Amino acid sequence: MLHLPIPGSIIGLFLLFIALILKICPLTWIETGAELLLAYLPLVFIPATVGVMNYPHLFAGSGVMLLFIVMVSTLIVMIAAGCTSQWLANRAQQRKEKKMCQEHLSQ
Question: Which residue windows are transmembrane per the record (predicted)?
Answer without folding.
Answer: 6-25, 37-58, 64-89
